[in-house]
Amino acid sequence: MSTFIKTRELVINWHITEACNYGCKYCYSAWENQKGSRDVVKGIQASRDLIRQVYDFFRPGNMDNPLYNEMRWKNVRLNFAGGEPLLHAGQMPELVRFAHEIGFNTSLITNGSRLTADLLNELAPYMSWLGLSLDSTDTQVNKSIGRMGRRGNQLDVTRLAKDIKAARDAHPALKLKVNTVVNDANVHENFSGLVRMLSPEKWKILRMLPVVNRNLEINDLMFAEFVMRHKAFQKISRVENNSEMLESYIMIDPLGQFYQNGQDTRENGYQYSPPILEVGASSAFSGMRFSANRYAARYSEVA
Q1: pLDDT digits (tens, 9 = 90+) for 63-88
Q2: What's 236's domain CATH number?
């Protein structure tokens, strides 16, 4: 009898834009630009077509999906990411609602700078997770990382925490996740106060991945000490070292292409598929590297 990796949810990450109002020095959201190409999100019908094709291919029980030979999943979630996805705040409520209506669970990962109370109230009824990318509460640390706007403005975390609490009180099904990239600028910082203030269901602690460059890279000991410093939060924390992040995500770039990282990414760049809207999700995904076992290590249990 075959043994399949069973997971509650398969997560598809659509990085809708490379643009961001911050300039983090280690950001890996940098893709190959093709002359004359246009981000899919800039067209509402193209965005809807992409979302529908991706759902049809990854919907639970689709035996034509090659992952079905290795995995079983009950739900599929579309995670809107960037760059900073809320640079397209005007389109985001409609896209999140549309994805939800056709069958996706939905989530959003944002740096929080464009997340207003009104926008939260529009998004919250259709999302299962809100993700916040927060790498420091210290002004100088954020400055050294590049987590600030062009005018030097930084996130008001206290204000944001109040807005998120109000949205979650109104929509109790919405869960909160915090993503923190541990790097040479913040590795000695204590995040306990921030985590307690936000009270997330999940805190993802990621070691800075040198995909684009080695700026602010840290060693094994430094990362281990950061994790140990925050062991009080081990029930909600998920720690991801560099090796666990390779070929363990299903990702779509702004042009609507699947893309993947790997051991050779630093030398050769990302692996890209043809555009989904041109060849279909099945053909586009067919040549992509993906490790079901590494995905399982982050999300699932083998059964």
Answers
A1: 999 999 889 999 999 999 999 999 99
A2: 3.20.20.70
pLDDT tens digit sequence for 177-219: 999 999 999 999 999 999 999 999 999 999 987 665 677 899 9
**Total count of domains within the chain:** 1
Residue 142 lies in a domain: yes
What is the domain extent for residue 292? Answer: 9-296
The CB density around residue 222, as the number of other CB atoms within 10 Å, is 15
Q: Which element (helix H / strand E) includes 137?
A: none
Could you tell me the pTM of the whole model? 0.91
In a domain, 4, yes or no: no
Measured CA to CA, the distance from residue 97 to residue 104 in angstroms comes to 10
The answer, yes or no, to whether residue 294 has pLDDT greater than 50, is: yes
Please report whether residue 194 resides in a domain: yes
What mean pLDDT comes out for the span 242-266?
Answer: 78
Q: To which residue do tokens 């070929």 refer?
A: 247
Classify residue 302: in a domain, yes or no: no
DSSP string, 33-89: PPTT---GGGSHHHHHHHHHHHHHHHSTT-TTSGGGGTEEEEEEEEEEESS-GGGGT
As a whole number of angstroms, the longest Cα–Cα distance in the chain is 61
Query: Rounded to whole angstroms, how far apart are CA atoms 55 and 234?
Result: 33
Closest C-alpha among 252, 250, 249, 289 to residue 49: 252
Given the DSSP bridges, would you call strands 250-252 and 237-240 parallel, antiparallel or unpaired? unpaired
